[in-house]
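2 proteins. here.
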Amino acid sequence: MPRGLFEPTVMFCGMTNSPATFQAMMDGIFADLLLEGCLVIYIDDILIYSTDYSEHRQHTQLVLQRLKESDLFLKPEKCFFDVSEVDFLGFILRPGQIGMAEDKVSAVLIWPKIDSVKALQCFLGFANFY
């Protein structure tokens, strides 16, 4: 077994502070863009929004540049670029509109009859997220 000091190259899953640590790191990397109001970050989900296409291209290039400078990478199969509608954290975002994702609406519509306090708590936990 190798000996010495090791530095992780990815965030450990399952550690109590991992989400908060990662969020703080992302907030630090993109602080100016977050203050400018063209970016929303939730853990590893990044949403870039702009008023026009030209501005959007600039914001996207800035985000990609910052990711590269910070040795962070994207999974291309999880990325959507230059779209006017996106599912972000269970919400469908369109210009001037915010709606719930269809699968979330369907889950509420087919929810089984609530017949206990525990079942009610489960439903309220789901519903309160939205």
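next one coming up
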Amino acid sequence: MGFHVHRGVLGIGKRKTLLSLQNFLQDLPEKVLILVLCGISNHDNMGAIFRNAAAFASNGIIVDKTSCDPLYRESIRVSAGAALKTPYAQGADINDIITALQDVDFHIYALSPSSPYTLKQAKITNRTAIILRTEGNGLPNHVLQKSDTLHIPMAHDFDSLNVATESGIALAHFSDSDKLS
């Protein structure tokens, strides 16, 4: 019974103590690109987002209290291990996250298909946070009101992308090409 996904390997690990939101933010460099995840409930998407963050040299991820665990088995597998090495903070309320980011001078973008502004119109700043939406319902209005919204242009037949795909596109746009090989 069960799934044959282990390929004969078993691992055990000890979870590190999670960074508080304040400690996570104070340890960041001056030039920084982070993701903020709001209500991400699918472990495959969580893992893919962590993999994208590592691939595009993001400085880390803030996972709100309504999102799933990035260290769940499926998340780790899909992340190709990036969930084990990408710095992150988890457990804060999205309103507290936005306030904390504003307090340390982050430019906050939220991806929303209803935004009149495209990703290409975004101003690249030294301290950028990108808030990604929940699957299905999109970001709550109070989050959109506290952020500069952007959308990813696409063919007229489509109005949205998978959140993990959005993360990769946004990170590729905002990432510092000097950090990539």
